[in-house]
Amino acid sequence: MLLSGRRNGEGRMGWQSGEAWDERYRAGKYRFLRDAVERARLDRIARLIADIASRDGACEVVDIGCGEGLLLEAIGGLPITRYIGVDLSAVALSRLPRSDIETLAICKPFGQWDGRPEASAPRVYVASEVLYYAPDAGKALQRIVGGGPAHVIVSCVAGEAGKPNWAAASRALWRELAATGWTKERAAKVRQGGHVWDIVQYRA
Ligand SMILES: C[S@@+](CC[C@H](N)C(=O)[O-])C[C@H]1O[C@@H](n2cnc3c(N)ncnc32)[C@H](O)[C@@H]1O
To answer: Closest by alpha carbon to 25, among 73, 83, 68, 63?
Structure first.
């Protein structure tokens, strides 16, 4: 996610209610996520999922903080048994795209999700530009993923001029994720339009 002036001073982290996110989605504040700059980030995540599926076979994708499901668009055509989008914004979830992939929307803070229903195939969990907003995000993600085996893909901003708080939040998140004991399988930097994201793939 861009953490530039386009976010109009929203560069602070912390839990916000579903209603607050709904309001911002209604106001069109996350339209920028459809821009080419952000697509580059989502396309990189989609390529990681494609690589996993080509190596391990069909998988189920769980998109934590899925928003309007832009990742679902990006993974069209891949061997995905089901896409589960988890988000606390009902407005965002109401905008999930139509897809040939079976889709399930779960409207709740991911920290309160029990991981059900049962997985239809080995899961790939994606947490893209969301962990900043949840308390104890690393632990909550680890609880959902459980003992694995599973793949976990996380994207966080790598730093943004004039927004040191975001870079600090990302560093804290990577430390939390390191404490999970998951194996780091791949790490990539996406640089686009003057913005940089770190994307890490773990094996749980
Ligand atoms: C900036 S958007 C990122 C959307 C998408 N993942 C992407 O990469 O473009 C953050 C999303 O996380 C959702 N969100 C924020 N806190 C959440 C939480 N605790 N549980 C679930 N979703 C959350 C918001 O509603 C929003 O849709």
So the answer is: 68
